[in-house]
Design brief:
With 225 residues, the chain is an alpha/beta fold. Helix content is 43%, strand content 11%. The protein has helices spanning 28-41, 49-52, 59-70, 76-93, 102-112, 124-133, 157-165, 180-189, 204-207, 217-221, and strands at residues 15-18, 116-119, 142-144, 173-177, 192-196, 212-214.
Length: 225
């Protein structure tokens, strides 16, 4: 672990910044399954590791990664379109499930009057649909989304934009992430990071930048009690 882990536990953040997919909402696993399923139906064998490798990064970077793994003839746009259509049908039938402890953590910040923002690689329109369907949108004072910055995670832009929209200095924020790209982005932004694992184990050099690790979001709430 890096030097941040030697800090006293007593830290009251001026704001809290949250990734969305995989961190607050259990959306990564269904999406990965759909990529494998739709690709198979189209006659392509897609290893689960390929969509898993795109967790936390923006659309353009995801496209490059998939085509590098699957070849230039892989019908990325057609498969992505079908994956999105099926995913939206899933959302219509039942909103995205919360990750364990989510409401406990959001409630704990709300009770203390600490402003919160979403910092997600997902485009704004799609993020709003997910947050509304999950019935958590009203917790947040601001959103910073993947189509509102020039560089996606692991660049720090999304988190810096979220902090700016809350009018809080990055070093006074805490950020919650589940992906290596997101943790790199928080480190680059100078924001204390809390890692809560979903699908991916970050490499050691990324874990060294993490301020705290928690088993779930409910456990993370105890960091600030």
């Amino acid at each position: 672990m890096g030097s941040r882990t030697q800090e006293p536990r007593a830290f009251r953040p001026a704001a809290a910044l949250f990734d969305m997919d995989g961190l607050m909402l259990d959306t990564e696993r269904p999406a990965i399954r759909l990529w494998v399923e739709v690709s198979r139906e189209a006659g392509y064998r897609l290893d689960e590791a390929v969509p898993l490798s795109t967790v936390g990064i923006d659309e353009q970077a995801s496209r490059i990664r998939v085509l590098e793994a699957c070849g230039a003839d892989f019908p990325y746009d057609e498969i992505r379109s079908e994956v999105e259509a099926r995913y939206h049908r899933l959302l219509e039938n039942s909103g995205p499930a919360h990750r364990p402890g989510l409401l406990r953590l959001l409630d704990s910040f709300a009770r203390r009057g600490i402003p919160m923002a979403v910092a997600t690689s997902t485009p704004r329109d799609a993020a709003l649909v997910k947050l509304r369907r999950a019935e958590i949108l009203d917790f947040f004072d601001a959103l910073a989304c993947g189509d509102e910055v020039d560089r996606g995670k692991p660049a720090p832009d999304i988190f810096l934009l979220a902090a700016r929209r809350l009018a809080v200095a990055p070093q006074d924020c805490v950020g919650f992430e589940d992906s290596p790209a997101g943790l790199r982005a928080l480190s680059a932004a100078g924001i204390r990071s809390v890692f809560v694992k979903d699908c991916v184990d970050p490499p050691p050099e990324v874990l060294e930048t993490v301020w705290r690790r928690c088993g779930d979001l409910g456990e993370a709430a105890l960091l600030f009690s």
